[in-house]
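[SOLVED] Need 3D model of a two-part complex

Original post:
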Amino acid sequence: MLTMHDVSKIYRTELIETYALRSFSLEVSAGEFVAITGPSGSGKTTFLNVAGLLEEFDSGSYLLEGQDVRGLSDDVRSRLRNERIGFIFQSFNLIPDLDVYDNVELPLRYRRLSGADRRERIGSALELVGLASRARHMPSQLSGGQQQRVAIARAIAGDPAFLLADEPTGNLDSLMSRQVMDLLEQINDMGTTILLVTHDPELARRAQRNVHLVDGQISDFRVYEPRPAASAGSAGTAGAAHI
Amino acid sequence: MSLDIRPTLSALLRNRTGAVLVAAQVAIALAVLANATYIIVQRLETIHRPTGIDENNILVVESAGFTPRFNQTASVQEDLAYLRAAPGVIAATATNSIPLSNGGNNDSLVTRPGTARHGYINDIEVDEQGLDTLGVRLIAGRNFRHQEIQPALTRNDAAHFVPVIIVSRALGEYLFPQQNPLGKQVWDAFDHPATIIGVVDPVMGAFPASDHPERVFFLPRMPDEFIVVRYLVRTQPGERDTVARLIESHLASSNPDRVLNFVRPLSYFKNLSYLGDSSMELYLVTVTALVIAVTSLGVFALATFNVSTRTKQIGTRRAVGARRRDVVQYFMVENGLITSAGVLAGCGLALAAGYWLSVRYALPRLELYYLVGGVVLLWAIGQLAAWQPARRAASVQPSVATRSV
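Solution:
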């Protein structure tokens, strides 16, 4: 699904070079739920940007579903983001002037899907996140948890191969955080690969695998026992195994 | 390709203050542009109406005697002999008025003696070289003969008329509708008869600002003795200014009993006649250009503001799959909607302003193709003004979506 080998990402100014990712290697299989953890400045978001084709990297190789993404044109990267990747952001990133329906529709319009196809996908996505009745509400009329669920609907409406979630519960209270995590687990159980960036170890424990970053390098792997299939919504059990 | 009009429009309607202000600006600009252009074109058409006169190669000379010894008849004969022999001169005539200058003489002609008279008709006194000097074309009949040129009027004989005249085609049609005016008789204000011996066309008289400047007739007569003497001098093309210097130098010193008032191109007097039109034209062009510039700046400013305040939105759009051209298209569609609303409102405003102008200032009603032209121009200017901000929006990186600020 996702194979990074020896990937480095350097931010340069006139005076200094900062390695955001240094010789970073990671393999994620289809259907996995992987948490990326680490302190602030450890390179979590840079990893997410590179993995999500939001930024280029400087060296190494990155295969996304077997395709080498290095040197792809901006249009091809946009298409891959649109069709294969779903994004969930910490601050939801909904368009405030568009209602729920139009927000979820956004990536589908960029894919040039027909109106009927869009309607069907939007309906299913909103149904899944439990907001079908709020389709014509504006983001400002929704709670934070509801807004994040709209963002999740937007991310999954295009049926992506994997979801990249950047601190998806960072702006939510604990109840709403739990609801969002339950939803992500539910989506993962349906076969979608999820990469979750978080600094919260409790959330990371709900993933099947935890990759810990420090200074742009992997410092630690933890593998947790798989969730029972029927236990979607419950926390993963921490059968920690250091590698 | 889908233009995403519906979501763009609904987003605009939810955040409409800036858009409404810019649309209003576009509407006002269109009203000004359409009506001002229409008025400018009308003025230009007026200024550039065919006069039938070789106006670029004609000089106007004016002199005035100022001593008791001054003999005008002798002076005129001497001056004309000099002018006609001067190098670069095609023809010269003495005259009572300056064509196209908005100053001159009028008379009233009727086709039967003793009948009621309506309005005045411009008359121009010339000699047998008058038509050649002006460069007007004789389309029927003949020119004046030397022996037909009447002596100047005197203070004791101011009512004398002439036996023959040449009329413009427009005057002939006015006096004798559906008839050939050649050979017909007309009567002046004192019921003195004259026979029409020639017809010229086109020609404009001394009063271009009048309702019928093309109604004019020529009298074969030397200029009155109790006014200043004017000469019209037609030069070879390109020789006008050289000839002007030459004759000014000669005439200024050839007769110590008169003063040379001026030697000027005929175009100088024409420009003076149209000074109001030219000034109005310049004023309208300036105002219209300023209004369009301010409108363009308004569109540019709104688009720039929208881009700078939506950086994260743009990054999010890029993250979920928008290509750079999708972002450009989004802003161009948004601006297109604002401009379209503006030009739509502007059409109504322009028509209302056109109607008001036509009623208030007796101008012709605004013609629709000026409105269509204005719509196209403003729409294009609006899109051009939004192009650079839209391109800037497209350069926003998708990684902006994950930044916390």
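Edit: The domain at 2-231 of chain A is CATH 3.40.50.300 (Rossmann fold).
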